[in-house]
Amino acid sequence: MGELILEMKNITKTFGSVSANRDVSLKVYAGEIHALLGENGAGKSTLMNVLTGIYRPDSGQIFCHGKEVTISSPKDAVDLGIGMVHQHFRLIPTLTVAENISLYTEKKGFLLNPAKMQKRIAECSRNFNLEVDPAAVVWQLSVGEQQRVEIVKLLYHGAEILILDEPSAVLTPQEAQDMFNVLRKMADSGKAVIVISHKMNEVLNNADRITVLKDGRMEDTMVRKDATLDRLTRAVVGKQDYTEHFRTQKKISPDVVFSMEHVCAKNDRNLDELKDISLEIRKGEIFGIAGVAGNGQRELSEVIAGLRPVTSGKILAEGADLTRASARERREKGIALIPEDRLETGLVPDLNFPENIILTRYSSSRYSRKGFLRFDRMRRDAEDYTKEYEIRHGGFDFPVGLMSGGNQQKLLLAREVSGNPKLIVAAYPVRGLDIGAADMIRQILLKQSEKGTSVLFISEELDEIFHMCDRIGVLCDGELMGIRNTSDTDVYEIGQMMAGERKDSEKEASSHA
Length: 513
Prior knowledge:
Organism: Bilifractor porci
Subcellular location: Cell membrane
Radius of gyration: 23 Å
Pfam family, one: ABC_tran
GO molecular function: ATP binding; ATP hydrolysis activity
CATH class of the largest domain: Alpha Beta
Domain ABC transporter: 6-240, 258-502
């Protein structure tokens, strides 16, 4: 272990009545990968936001290389060699990848050289196996591609202390391991790497030391040789007998709730993205979509929800043609959406809890009477959601942007299932969540399925798809490579399809029986 490069002493940070950090102390050494674990709302991101100058602590001290420092802004952190990839990205959507990365660097002349800048960024991204197109406009990129831009931005800048919030959430297992290999090289060169992760095995395989936060306090700290899955789970969740809930196999109804026939659609660059997609989803079925990020998953979810037009093909719900129907009309037909970016498409971070729960139903008789909102009903429903879904928040008057990611996701899911949908499109519903919050989201979807609601479940985690889904469809380059009953396939075959190998449909026949 190298020298003590960073020390945070007795950090306390509160938001209203909520204590996000309470007397937290953390030591980080040069040459190590230090993992931060904890449930959503445990205070991990808040602690790192204090370190990077996003928040000012109410009390406590920060030391860099043994010298006490005051970090009043993100610029102060950058000047100290501290950089962070946030879970919700700090990118300007209307600028290119190269322009976003250039804004983060210290040395800028009056005029930019776009060609030279793009060449250097492309070389840097290739070196770290995180290739992105420097000329692409950020709003046109998928969530996975945007996260790669954020990671490249730090690596390009050469920060001495790197903080990554769920860095592997949108990467394949192979890409994630390649990234950790890069982080290991950086640590070996004397840099300090802090990784916020909810993946226990990932932490056990790659971290040198692990710190667990719970309810804003430090619960446990251990070196890797002393860490076990049981010890980590007990520290994070606080349950001796924690068991995740997964799908039990059942016979699927033959009733088709939703279908797509030869659907094609374009992406934000006006290029063909979805190519001849045909599938059927049955009543009560959980239909999984597997694939590496950026292969049409976002476009598929938006096409189904009515947020993106089709260029050809048909979309049917219980036999009714919804191909040209608006998002509102599809919602009225029972199609609900859990988008991949909860704060970009699902929630409005500056609005409060009750305001967010009526976003999709503000004109309904439940929340509106003669053109006036029924605030009493909004607040009552917010209280019911809080109890039923165990949503933690600082108060109904605070913006939901201050809530943790897991609680934001539970609020979003509670709102969508409250309308008794017939089909829930869930795009990466547990991405970036701790094991407790992720399990609750899965339980909600499983219960909806048991009630007869169909679920389209999009995920990059193959273990999760196999545990949750009845059938699996695989997307690669916007094409459906094949559909399999979960019980009739394995990770190897699905992996082949994710890599672009099209499979025949013989094994699909039993799903129509």
